[in-house]
Design goal:
The protein is an alpha+beta fold. About 30% of the residues lie in helices and about 20% in strands.
Length: about 150
């Protein structure tokens, strides 16, 4: 079963999200998700089997340019995760479908997402669920030296 998350679901959603984004931490994700639930341009969905939440998806509207799209706003899949042991049952596909319906209900004509270059499982999921690759990029950073005081 797929349901839109409410405030009562914050702990469960954050626990699942922390499995996808461990560097963020459960408490930080809980605070972030609390804010998202109050924003009409963001949504969280949970997948459950029996009385256990086994997957989540986070989506939102993006008004800035989204690679490969021609419209605005664009529905955007920010993250999706299904617990090991519950995968390959159509759960992620059902979560994605619910995100797409949510975006379409808000007037979006396009839906987009991304994944890291080395995440083959995510790439395969995106291609299997109807996404087409729009571009590949490599991002760079470097520290700046502080100007010396005169």
């Amino acid at each position: 079963m797929i349901r839109k998350a409410t405030a009562e679901d914050l702990v469960s959603a954050a626990e699942l999200a922390a499995l996808l984004w461990p560097e963020a931490g459960k408490e930080e994700l809980e605070r972030e998700f609390r804010d998202l639930l109050e924003d009409g341009e963001c949504a969280l969905f949970l997948a459950s089997e029996g009385d256990r939440d086994v997957g989540f998806a986070q989506c939102q509207l993006r008004h800035d340019y989204v690679e490969g799209t021609d419209s605005s706003p664009v529905g955007y899949l920010e993250g999706i995760y299904v617990r090991e042991g519950f995968r390959r049952r159509g759960t992620a596909r059902a979560l994605l479908r619910r995100c797409e319906e949510w975006a379409a209900d808000l007037g979006c004509r396009e839906f987009a997402s991304d994944c890291e270059l080395d995440n083959g499982d995510s790439l395969a999921f995106h291609l299997k669920t109807g996404f087409r690759e729009a571009n590949r990029i490599i991002c760079f950073t470097k520290p700046l030296e502080r100007p010396k005081e005169k």
